[in-house]
């Protein structure tokens, strides 16, 4: 247990302002326990994307402390951040697929960045594209894909490396409810293997679909945490998930 | 529900391992070559061609000046300026005999009247009246070492009695203005080479920046996926290097053709002055280095531009 505690992600009194404007995030404090499933909700403009940007190390906070996997990432030298980013999977709100790369190459990108050999990644990428229902669109450029198809490529790219934490910004915004559910199952499957999942969404129906999920609600840049569960999550639940992952209830093969 | 696909074997994408994995060839596979804007290779080609021509000119001038200097430095000319032909002839013989004995003199030769007349023909016309326009007798001296003013003085004293009409000049003296003109041209060529080099570097820098602008999204995404600065810089370095190599090769070819054509023209002149203005094989090698330097500058600016932009990201 103690080792796992070191693997948490902790925000302590984090504040963020863009330029000299008012703070977009204020006094945000929480702890993400490994293997937990979080939904981040809040009205449009509440600061969900901003919070996720801090999580996936695209932005430095204006104040506060962020520690990831037991390391204070605020004071870390730039050169050490790529290694942290490689442990994360990100679904950007605007997908951010690379326009001149095929669906296959977009999904393969994180593996190539991490130095996986071509021979090793081919099958994984093909399987992943098949899994998100895009086996027939492997060679398509993003511009020739529908919004929902692009979103699925973006998700495939985020989960292909089986990250320690998955951060998804409105990952189901452009797909029909059936596909939304299917993608959510993908996140859950990843979660069962120990990946911490954070999904930002407007969709309140989605929240009910993952029974053990924790909800982070942002209101005008402030995190409401009336019970303190976000700061001090119940340990039991985390242990449960940990055990599940180790038991490998899907046969160990993810 | 079907399980999601299994996870690929990472070479060590964890906190410590993932770093050193991507080197060299792998980086280029991340994204296809982000090419420089269309006309860039041509701009580089033109700059390289101009630089090659300017450098070739400078080197040829340098060779010419050095050849001329070594040929002329040991040379001196004695003129017997005397209107009376018999007296002129007597003094010339006396001077010839005296100078042949002088320790500093390697060889001495009277320029025959026929040769002199041929040299002066363009100015005086054929069969000019020799009495009307007295032509001085001319003696060519070759010294053992470079002609010094002290040696020339000692010769003047030697001739003062027997050949009072003798005037001795070092050949380099009257070529002085030519040498200084050549040397100015050399400086000009050097300045041109430097200016062209700077302009090329600036052009490449701008091209790298605009390539960076159009690929900003790609750079950001690779950055956020955990790409290191050097991985991302390498993507750019390679494509810029590719374009610069293309441009540099074309430019070198164009420049060399121009230099060869110009060289042929000068050989056609075949004047004593221009002899020795050719290029040695070392010079040709130096010209070939120009596009290589161009490629290095291009890749270096690309790298600096990209890493500079990346440093502004977290
Ligand atoms: N780069 C930026 N520069 C300045 N202000 C920004 C920037 N990005 C976001 N903001 C502001 O920060 C606030 C929070 O934005 P954010 O994108 O985090 O909201 P959100 O909760 O993700 O909204 P949505 O649900 O619409 O995606 C908004 O008021 C927005 O205008
Ligand atoms: Mg948002």
Sheet with most strands: strand arrangement of chain B: 2-3-1-4
What ranges of chain A have pLDDT less than 50 throughout 5 or more consecutive residues?
236-254
What would you call the structural class of chain B?
alpha+beta
Mean pLDDT of chain B: 77
Q: What share of residues are in beta strands of chain B?
A: 5-15%
Helix content of chain B: 55-70%
The number of distinct helices of chain B, counting runs of at least 4 residues, comes to 9
**What ligand molecules are bound, each kind once?**
adenosine-5'-triphosphate, magnesium ion
Sequence of secondary-structure elements of chain A: HEEEHEEHEHHHEHEHEEH
β-sheet strand percentage of chain A: 15-25%
For this entry, what is the oligomeric state of its chains? heterodimer
How can the largest sheet of chain B be summarized? 4 strands, antiparallel
Q: Estimate the mean pLDDT confidence of chain A.
A: 85
Low-confidence stretches of chain B: 8-28
What is the count of distinct domains of chain B?
2
* Alpha plus pi helix count of chain A: 9
Annotation, overall tally of beta strands of chain B:
4
Provide the gyration radius of chain A in Å: 18 Å
What is the share of helical residues of chain A? 25-40%
Q: Give the termini separation of chain B.
A: 40 Å
């Amino acid at each position: 247990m103690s080792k796992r505690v070191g693997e948490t992600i902790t925000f302590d009194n984090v504040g963020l302002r863009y330029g000299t404007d008012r703070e977009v995030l204020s006094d945000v404090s929480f702890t993400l326990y490994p293997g937990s499933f979080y939904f981040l909700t809040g009205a449009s403009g509440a600061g969900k994307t901003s919070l996720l940007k801090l999580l996936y190390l695209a932005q430095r906070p204006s104040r506060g402390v962020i520690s990831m996997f037991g390391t204070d990432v605020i004071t870390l030298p730039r050169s050490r951040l790529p290694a942290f980013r490689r442990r994360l999977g990100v679904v950007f709100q605007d997908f951010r697929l690379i326009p001149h790369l095929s669906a296959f190459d977009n999904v393969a990108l994180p593996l190539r960045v991490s130095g996986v050999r071509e021979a090793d990644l081919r099958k994984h990428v093909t399987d992943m594209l098949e899994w998100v229902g895009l086996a027939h669109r492997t060679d398509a450029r993003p511009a020739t894909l529908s919004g929902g198809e692009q979103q699925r490529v973006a998700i495939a790219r985020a989960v292909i490396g089986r990250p320690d934490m998955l951060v998804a910004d409105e990952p189901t915004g452009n797909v029909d409810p059936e596909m939304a559910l299917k993608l959510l199952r993908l996140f859950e499957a990843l979660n069962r293997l120990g990946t911490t999942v954070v999904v930002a969404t407007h969709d309140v129906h989605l929240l009910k679909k993952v029974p053990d999920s924790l909800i982070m609600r942002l209101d005008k840049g402030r995190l409401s945490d009336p019970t303190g569960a976000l700061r001090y999550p119940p340990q039991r639940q985390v242990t449960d998930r940990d055990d599940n992952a180790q038991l490998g209830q899907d046969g160990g093969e993810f | 529900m079907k399980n999601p696909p299994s996870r690929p074997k990472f070479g060590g994408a964890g906190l410590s391992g993932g770093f050193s994995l991507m080197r060299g060839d792998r980086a280029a596979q991340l994204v296809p070559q982000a090419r420089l804007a269309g006309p860039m290779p041509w701009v580089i080609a033109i700059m390289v061609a101009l630089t090659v021509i300017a450098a070739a000119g400078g080197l040829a001038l340098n060779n010419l000046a050095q050849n001329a200097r070594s040929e002329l430095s040991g040379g001196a000319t004695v003129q017997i300026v005397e209107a009376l032909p018999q007296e002129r002839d007597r003094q010339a013989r006396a001077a010839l005999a005296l100078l042949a004995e002088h320790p500093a003199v390697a060889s001495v030769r009277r320029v025959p009247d026929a040769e002199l007349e041929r040299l002066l023909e363009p100015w005086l016309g054929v069969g000019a009246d020799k009495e009307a326009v007295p032509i001085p007798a001319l003696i060519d001296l070759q010294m053992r070492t470079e002609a010094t003013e002290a040696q020339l003085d000692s010769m003047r004293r030697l001739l003062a009695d027997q050949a009072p009409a003798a005037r001795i000049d070092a050949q380099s003296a009257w070529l002085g203005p030519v040498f200084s003109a050549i040397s100015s041209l050399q400086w000009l060529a050097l300045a041109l080479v430097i200016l062209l080099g700077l302009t090329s570097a600036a052009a490449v820098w701008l091209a790298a920046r605009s390539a960076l602008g159009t690929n900003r999204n790609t750079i950001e995404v690779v950055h956020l996926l955990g790409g290191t600065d050097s991985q991302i810089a390498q993507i750019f370095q390679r494509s810029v290097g590719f374009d610069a190599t293309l441009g540099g090769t074309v430019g070198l070819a164009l420049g060399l053709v121009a230099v060869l054509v110009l060289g042929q023209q000068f050989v056609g002149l075949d004047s004593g002055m221009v002899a020795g203005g050719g290029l040695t094989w070392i010079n040709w090698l130096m010209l070939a280095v120009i596009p290589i330097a161009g490629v290095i500058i291009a890749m270096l600016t690309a790298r600096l531009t990209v890493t500079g932009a990346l440093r502004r990201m977290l």
